[in-house]
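Weekly puzzle thread! Below is a chain. First person to post its structure in token form gets bragging rights.
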Amino acid sequence: MRMLKTLTIVTTASFLLISAPAARAQSIDDLALMQTFLEIMQDYFGIIESTHEVASNPEMAAIMQMQKIQEVYEERGNKAESVDVLLQVLEDSNNQTIRNAAYMLLGDTLKETGRADDALEYLQQGLAENIRAAD
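Winning reply:
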């Protein structure tokens, strides 16, 4: 992926330089514009690379998906509905990384929706799992 990114940036830069009018020198403004364009392209490929990294890792993807589900419920004005999804994740998954993320998201959601006692219960449950796993 990094090689493709570098090749694309070099190709784009070469094209811009070759296609510039040979009869006149590039102005400072033109060079600044080209530099800005190349920086935007580099940032764009960085986003693609990051997205690929997350999408290629099931743990990272699951955590991102839980966060996105929470966002959708929050945008709909009912973040508390994401609690059921997070509880289902805890029921379905044995992966400790995914479970840890679910516990943290669940704790935050419960606290934010006025259920601090429930939040503490789940966070303590997650802590107990981690202590057992660490032994």
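Puzzle host: Confirmed. Bonus trivia for everyone else. The radius of gyration is 24 Å.
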